[in-house]
Sequence to fold (355 residues):
Amino acid sequence: MSALFTPLTLRGVTLPNRVALAPMCQYSAGPDGLPTDWHRVHLGSRAVGGAGLIITEATAVVPEGRISPQDTGLWSDAHVEAWRPITAFIAAQGSVPAVQLAHAGFKASTYRPWAGHRGGVPDTEGGWTPVGPGAEPFLPDYRTPAALDEAGIAAVVEAFATAARRALDAGFAAVEIHAAHGYLLHEFLSPLTNHRTDGYGGDRAGRMRLTLEVARAVRAAVGEAVPVLTRISATDWVDGGWTIEDSVVLAGELAAAGVDLVDTSSGGASAAASIPIGPGYQVPLAARIRRDAGVLTGAVGLIVEPEQAEQIVADGEADLVLLGRELLRDPYWPHRAAAKLTPTPTWPNQYTRAF
Ligand SMILES: Cc1cc2nc3c(=O)[nH]c(=O)nc-3n(C[C@H](O)[C@H](O)[C@H](O)COP(=O)(O)O)c2cc1C
Fold:
């Protein structure tokens, strides 16, 4: 019996296995954040490849929440129409389509990696003024954000909820809230980036408030049957920053707000972080949150070997394994892993003559 190839039921949805495509920006959206044929083929290939859960790239809940002008969004009915064939194809392969709902905060309006420039995109090239917890830019060459006031914060919460409702219309069966990697929600969580003196800053409870309001609003928007995941940065890897102890508390509060699984990543709030990168380097963070907060977790980060992924689930370190770059290199990784770990072939019927 393979633990990795055992189904996982989250509320009204059952994932056929514990392998997920990690959310990964493709910087390939059409005008105004509409997904394109690239997303249909890219995400569709990973569904054909056998990943039980397909999570889209960071998909912005408002235009100014895009990381780059080429990011996808879900802020209008046109986005719903554009996502529909993509989610339908994923579901037809037996995989579960999920959207990562995101707001990039003060890291918005940046060039895509292959643009040949770094930092903030100016208005003349389709950029915009980002928003953040304060008015300091992330790095000197990033755009200077406008600090959100309380009305702006309320609008962000509402935008996540509205996008979550649109996600269901678009055929997504699960929603992931992006609260990691130095984007807006993490900017509010981390003492490195949140210097507010109002009710959304200060102590840990104040800094957690926006993320928890978003979680409650998304849960209310999608109803009881739809899984809600949240991706967090479990540590800033910086002295004086957000810690794993903070994350255990946050995970418990997220569960109380209706979040079903904490997708455990790290870093992103500070360019000065020293991250001990190595095989499975974030797995202990997922294991700690799972044990101490009593919530389901996802593990991600340099998980590349089938036996490694199997062990993480079998040992109870996480309930779901997310693969990023390995699934870029090999969309068929889940079928190859199943061939090693289970007696039953999982390849699609269309491909069985290959074997
Ligand atoms: C090209 C690329 C784009 C990414 N975009 C996102 C994103 O949109 N949202 C997110 O939460 N993480 C994003 N990540 C991080 C991945 O989801 C993953 O956590 C990270 O790559 C570590 O896992 P891996 O070692 O399996 O690649 C991205 C990573 C890559 C390589």
Summary: The chain has a mean pLDDT of 98. The longest strand covers residues 53-60.
